[in-house]
Amino acid sequence: MTNLSFGARYWRKYWPLTLLSYVSSLIAIVSDLCLPLLTAAMLDYAVCYDPAHFKAPSGLFAFLFTGKYGDFGTLELFFSCAGVFAVILLVRLIFIYVKNVSFQNVGFCMESRWRDETYKKLLDLDGSALSQFNTGELMTVMNRDIVQSKEMYSRSFISFFDSVTVMIVTSLFLSSISPWLLLIPLAIASPLIVTLVRYVKVMRGIFTDMRRAYSDINLTVQENIRGVRLVRAFANEKYEEKKFERDNYAVRDLMFRLDDTAAKYNLFFNSYMQLAYAATIIVCVFLVLDGSLLIGALTAAGAYVMKIMNHITQISQNISNMQRQLVSLGRLRHFLETESGIKEYPEALRVSVRPHIRFENVSLTLGDKQVLKNISLDIPYGKRVGIMGGTGSGKSALLKCLSRVYDVTAGKITIDGKDIRDYSLSALRDEYAYVFQDVFLFSHTVDSNIAFYDPEAPVEDVKEAAETARAARFIEKLPDGYDTIVGERGLGLSGGQKQRLSVARALMKNAPVLILDDASSALDMVTEKKLLAAVKEKTPERTLLIAAHRVSSVADCDEIVYLQDGEIIERGSVEELAAENGRFAAVYRRQSADGSLDDSSYGKEAD
Questions:
Q1: Residue 147 burial by Cβ neighbours in a 10 Å radius (0-12, 13-18, 19+)
Q2: How far is CA 309 from CA 156, 230, 272, 305, 574, in A?
Q3: Fewer Cβ within 10 Å of end Cβ, the chain: N or C?
Q4: Closest Cα to residue 166, out of 300, 280, 32, 273?
């Protein structure tokens, strides 16, 4: 499928409006092209009538000069012609309005549909598929590329249609005045087409570079918005300013190159147009002196040749714009046709409300790295499992496999004996409530962030979840309490406060399995212990999976597994593992020695 046929799939969905805009455009064009003929007839037979050089009226408006609407050279005939002129002009204006409204509506519908589909695609793609696109690229696709693609189908195509129609109809009218006049645009067409082909090639390359430059500048801005605190912390503003200036100047230089190229080629196009006009006047003067043409016909012929040349130039501009639009359409198509690596089976099973989870010799390879190796783990409903290990040991990857953020490359994960790939993604992911270490909060109120899963949840439930997550005290001290707007990504809150809001949000989901992925790393030991105790009390029967670096986080778990390089090297209760002379025991002794397991070594609970 070509890029054009890809876009045409969407365009055809609005064919009634599209047809209306093209029919309206055709009527408006024919009406507009009738005016020079009528003006010529008015000059020859009403304003500048000369019986000595009389030539019988013919053509489209011959009916006006039968004597029924006034004699030659009279005001009555002039006003009759002027009335017809006004009617034609009114028809033209009405259909131009209909055309503009209809093709703009087609454009708005296509743009809205594309925005909707790109956003859904963004949510649908898994991590590995999204990694093909950086943030700047995604923002460019979802904004600039959609607008450019829409402009091609709603504006450039109808403009191209207008130009071709004008050239065909004008040529017919011009030939009715004198076939000799068609030789002028035909003679100039060959060098004009050669110039146009070269122009298209040059502009396509420039627009490809410009799109890449805009993606780069979008990425730089996005990264600095997200990392503004890091930039300030390292006093690195000058470096980031220079990086932005580099990207900004790259866009500027491409704009200079674009304008310079357009100006050079437009010089050629304007020269061809002026040459055609001058040649038309010369030919028409000879035809008038020869008696083959009247003065009015000369003015009409000049107007028609100029229309042909103007629309040849307009076609060149449209083709130039379409190079930019085709580049954007190609990137939009590439994004929308990108397939997620996580496939959903059509025969989806229903998930149990008391899921029994099993890892059966699970391995996971991401790129060239094997992240998990032969993981076997039995988690009946209600079991509490702690997962420990150093950085990069595979803790987070193991938990993400449960909801198919990653699909395992060997072995399988089952729920109640059925492979999780046999369940629908939505049903499967409804089983889990995740709390991640890297907390994301939306730029909205505190209560809307907590009630993210169920925006219609009662306020009492929101407050109860906040109380369980040990967040109620600091929320009540915020300027507007639960109605306080938190900044993008939780800007303005501490790491511990954001983590507690995230725990409250997970509790509101009320899922059978609660997953805490290093979710208390920013909390002190007292707060962490009280939070985990409250969570366990709130969800006494539910499965709880805790990935952590601190022994205190997993001390009350039924089973603890210790990962190293993606493998389970130790498993057991905290007492059993502490008694062994293994990796867990070393961590346990180290954290016991520095007071990490002693609550008394910490101050009172933070708000």
A1: middle
A2: 18, 58, 8, 6, 86
A3: N
A4: 32
